[in-house]
Write a structure and sequence with these properties.
Ig-like_fold; signal; 3-stranded antiparallel β-sheet; rod-shaped; Immunoglobulin-like; 3 helices; 24% helix; Ig_sub; 6-stranded mixed β-sheet; 33% strand
Amino acid sequence: MPRCPWLLLMLVGPAAGLVLSTPSFPVTVSHGKTALLPVLLNFSSSVPTYFQIRWRFITSPGLVLTVKADNCKGGSGTRQWWDACEITVVKAERYRHRVEWSSENASLILRDARVEDSGIYDIKVLALGVRVSANINLTVINETSNPPLNAAAFDDQRRGTSSNKSTNVAAPISLVKTEFGRDYTVTNIIRLSLAGLILCLLGFIIGEIARGKGASDGNSLLLLLG
């Protein structure tokens, strides 16, 4: 059975129809790049008149960003909740120049990602008498070979499809030098084997010469004594 690439948190009761979707895989981004922490927030029934979305950094406790949705009007229909509400975004001071709300759904955008940004981020949706939360793990690496996870990758994995765009899955790196598609592994092995045989042959020849010289010196000594 295939592993579900996203997690769903659903509420029942006063806010029935609220669905919060987060990826089940960690997000990986290179140092200095932009990280997207993808979250989908949907209301299958009516949107609450007022609710909040709060992003916090759990590893180094502190608020990152708050999205306040007020005076929300109308049912869900084809209209997105961010179009039906008056949106106010409040950023924490230390993230003021680096963090953004994606302006579509509940995703968080973190620019100029640093190694110390690595850790667990928590998103909470708060409405009247209702609270639902989920976590996303972010890893920031110093290498530049791993591309960051983007919205397209999250959507592809959410739909169970793949695309040619970059994802956070790095291809295995071959340690064998290749040129024009040719693999030099076998050639290198043969060269090393021949070098070993040559060294053994040289050692044998030197040993035989040493033995011959020792025997010659011994015979000369016997002749002198005789």
